[in-house]
């Protein structure tokens, strides 16, 4: 079983290899990006992906488009005005 010192040595070697890829002028951009992502994920932590059931929770939300905004405005403008000052009243004006 590898001790903590060996793990740190291997980690250092891995980071040096990733930095070498980033600094290599002949490396492909995609390889540089993957190396940078690996370094950032190690240092900052990888962003957690929500499980599928959580993704479905928000599936009913849809982006606000100009068309949806116009429809919302038309619906609000078509509501009867409340004339008694009570926003909870059902009295139409």
What do these coordinates show?
- This protein is mainly alpha-helical and 93 residues long.
- The protein has one domain.
- It is built from four helices and no strands.
- It has helices at 4-23, 29-44, 52-57, 66-78.
- Helix 1 (4-23) runs antiparallel to helix 2 (29-44).
- The protein is elongated.
Q: Determine the structural class based on helices, strands and strand pairing.
A: mainly alpha
Helix % is 55-70%
The number of helical runs is: 4
- Please give the alpha-carbon distance between the first and last residues: 80 Å
> What number is the mean pLDDT?
76
Alpha carbon gyration radius: 28 Å
Low-pLDDT parts are none
What is the total tally of β strands? Answer: 0
**Total separate domains:** 1
The string of secondary-structure elements, in order, is HHHH
Task: List descriptors.
mainly alpha, single chain, 4 helices, 93 residues
Short description:
The protein has 93 residues and is mainly alpha-helical. It has 4 helices and no strands.
